[in-house]
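Quick log. Single chain, no ligands specified.
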Amino acid sequence: MEIYDILHNTDMRKRVPRTHWQRHGPHDTGLPIMPITPIRLPSTELRRSMPTLCGCLLLFFGGACAPVGTAPEEGTGVLSLQDDDNAALSVSLEVQQQTMAAGQDILLDWSNLRTDMWGRDLDPLVDIENPTLRHFGRADLNEIIDGLVAESLPQSAVALQVSCTVQEAACFLSEMAFDDDHPIDVVELFEEGEGTWLLELRHAGNGESVAYQALAPSNLGTDEVAWVTGHSSSAAAWVELAQPLTLPAVAMDELVLTWDEITMDSRGHDLDPWRLDRFTLARLDHEDVQSGEATLLNLEAMTEEAWHADIEGVSTLHLSSLEDAANQHRLPDLSTPGLWLLTLECSTCTNPLPDVLIRLEP
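-> predicted structure:
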C-alpha cells in the first residue's frame, strides 16, 4: 500500500495549494444511486486527541464485534500494544484540473503515466485497472480533495460513478458505464456547470489509488484528450514515530503481541480492526532513517530483513509464527543493529499507509 517522510519540521506539514473553482449544482440523471467503491486516503490530523473523522464510505460491522484474540500459553511474555505506541501520520494531496470541451466524447489517456502520485514507477499498460470516473454534483474540487484526505467524503456527494474495461492505456467517455445492465450516455452529461468530474486510476496488483485527474467541461474548452501523467496528482506523507516500545526480556519464540487495546489508527481515526490482515516486522539499516528523516515510501527498499504474518480476524500474534521472505519460520534476532518497526495494515485497501506503525526497542 506507499509511504513517507519521517520529518520533525512542522513547517513542512503544509497542505499543497490547490486551485479553487466554482461550485455547481448536481445533474439529475434519473438513475438510482449505485454503490460506490470507498475512496481511502489518510487524514491530515496528527493529534490522536482530536475528534475522529469517520469516512462515510467505510463499511462498518455493527461495532459490537471485534477480531478474536487467542489466549497466550503459560510461560510466554505478553506485550499489549497501545494507542500511545502508534505513530502519527500526516498527508497532503494535490490534483490538477484540465478544462475540456463540453459535450464531446473525451478520450481519457494515461499512456504517459510513468509514476504514481507518490512518485513510484509504474507501467501504464500493465499496472492500471478499472479506471473510475466520478461526477460530484455539488462539491467543488477543494472540498472533494479535503474529503479524500480526511476520509469524510459521503456517498451522497457522488452523483454518478462509472468505469470502463481497460484494453489499452486509454478509454473514451462513451465507453464508461455502470455495468452492462445500466447503460448511460456519459457524454450527454458532460456539460459545463454540471459539477466536478474526477478520474481515479488504481493499481491492478493491489487496488491502491495511484493517480487522480480532475476534469472541467466548458463550452469554451477545446481539449478532447485528458492526459493523465505523473503531474496530474501528487501526494506526500509524513510520520512522527512515538517513543520506542521496549520488548520484554523473553525469548522471541515466547513473545506474544496483542493489539485489541489500540482504538485509533495512525491517522487519528477510529481503528476498524476488521481491516487489519497483515503484520510486518522489519529491520532497516539506513543512516537517514536512524537520524529520524527518511522517505518512508522507500521503506521496502531500505528494509534489510522482514517477517510477515496473516492476522485477518485476530488481535493476538505469537511471534514464533512469523515467516521471513523465504516463507521460513526463522525467528528475528532483535539484537541486530538497525531500526526495528512493526506495522499492522490492510493489504487489500486502496490506502497505502499502515494503520499501526510502531518503533521497537529490543
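The CA atoms of residues 289 and 339 lie 7 Å apart.
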